[in-house]
Amino acid sequence: MAAPQDVHVRICNQEIVKFDLEVKALIQDIRDCSGPLSALTELNTKVKEKFQQLRHRIQELEQSAKEQDKESEKQVLLQEVENHKKQMLSNQTSWRKANLTCKIAIDNLEKAELLQGGDLLRQRKTTKESLAQTSSAITESLMGISRMMSQQVQQSEEAMQTLANSSRTILDANEEFKSMSGTIQLGRKLITKYNRRELTDKLLIFLALALFLATVLYIVKKRLFPFL
């Protein structure tokens, strides 16, 4: 079962991908917007809300990364956070460019409407149809990007699992090494004790032999030289 922290990280990644795609779609809507300015303002309001949600989720993911116990997992998540931040900055740049393009297009359309009148309305209808087709193609492209990013998230999760398994293997080996070290130290103590016991036995044998020789000499002396 996945840890609550891992579930939170997975949810953060999924929602970051979701908000990123929604921001891209809104930016494309701004590019396609042909007016009026109120429509552009409404789209920009939605983009601001999505950016706030995206920024909040990135901050949550960064905090989760800092709370990781293992340095390897922490570095993997921090790299993901950095990538998300770069992508958000890229989206903000695209957003500004889309606004500029849209405002120029609205100004040009308003000028053209004054000059061409009814003909421009028919041209705008054709343009909208073309833009709708373009928007559909872009939507398909964004869905492909979404699938690719989901695969990248899955690969990151697999890499983190591999690192976790490696860490457990190293810990198990360390425990076995500690157990072997204890056995070796116990054997060393036993050998030392045995050597000391052997030295003591030799000393006792020597003392007994000396006592025996002294006794023999004493008896021989009394028998051969009783007057001494």
Labels describing this entry:
mainly alpha; Methane Monooxygenase Hydroxylase, Chain G, domain 1; 4 helices; rod-shaped; membrane; 228 residues; ER-Golgi transport; transport; BCL2 interacting protein 1
Can you summarize this structure?
The protein contains four helices and no strands. With 228 residues, the protein is an all-alpha fold.
Sketch the topology as an H/E string, one letter per element.
HHHH
Approximate helicity band: over 70%
Structural Rg:
43 Å
SS-based structural class? mainly alpha
| Beta strand % | under 5%
Largest sheet: none
Q: Write out the CATH superfamily name of one domain.
A: t-snare proteins
**Assigned CATH architecture of one domain:** Up-down Bundle
Low-confidence stretches: none
Please report the distance between the alpha carbons of the first and last residues: 98 Å
Number of DSSP helices?
Answer: 4
Look up the CATH topology of one domain.
Methane Monooxygenase Hydroxylase, Chain G, domain 1
Net shape: rod-shaped
Q: What is the CATH top level name of one domain? A: Mainly Alpha
User: What's the total count of β strands?
Assistant: 0
Arithmetic mean pLDDT: 82
Structure commentary:
By secondary structure, the chain is mostly helical. It has a domain at 1-116: Up-down Bundle (Methane Monooxygenase Hydroxylase, Chain G, domain 1). Helix content is 93%, strand content 0%. The chain is built from four helices and no strands. It is rod-shaped and about 160 Å long. 14% of the residues are buried.
